[in-house]
Protein: Ribosome assembly factor mrt4
Organism: Nelumbo nucifera
Amino acid sequence: MPKSKRNRPVTLSKTKKKGKEHKEAIVNSIRQAIDNYNSIYVFSFENMRNLKFKEFREQLKSTSRFFLGSNKVMQISLGRSIADEVRPGIHKVSKILRGNAGLYFTNLPKEEVERLFEQYEEYDFARTGSTATEKVELKEGPLDQFTHEMEPFLRKQGMPVRLNKGVVELVSDFVVCEEGEPLSPESSRILRLLGIKMATFRLHLICRWSPDDFELYKEGLDLSDVESS
């Protein structure tokens, strides 16, 4: 009887782990970027979409570089205090690196960066757990946008549907989601089928550092607290 391929041993030495060497490479890359670019920005993001972010990054790769990952590793790269900062005042950037944030290095003028980030937004389908931005309700009657093959799937999503002479129809009004409420897995699937996009991928500037200046963009942050830390 032939041996199952599932039972074949795997040599762990052939696998790669993101350990100390990977972290050191990130630290070195960030410190090199400090030398190569005029300004550093901390940015936050909402409704991150990796493919969209990659496209935005490619658009700016000739003048800029982005870093996303462990905030702690990025903080170490810059220096977390006056005693270990790699450039005067750059530890202030580390203090701002919290939560969903990243580093943006660039040679673009400040005004151009602000314009790019302010204007950038991409719409996409909301994921499970996201907050509905509007109420979506379907009225009783035929659903011409769906083929008859979709009827079993729609029923599994909790929709009160039936086939009537090969046409999918709702037997009663159905609320897909309520504004301000988190989306269920079923609601997010139905919204996708309906082509309704409720998620907006945005990037927000939080602060800017250059050898001659440090500036906060985000409201609620106290510059004096950052400077005294």
Observations:
- The first helix runs from residue 20 to 36.
- Confidence is low (pLDDT under 50) at residues 4-15.
- Residues 101 and 199 are 18 Å apart (CA to CA).
- The chain has two domains: 21-122+202-228, 136-196.
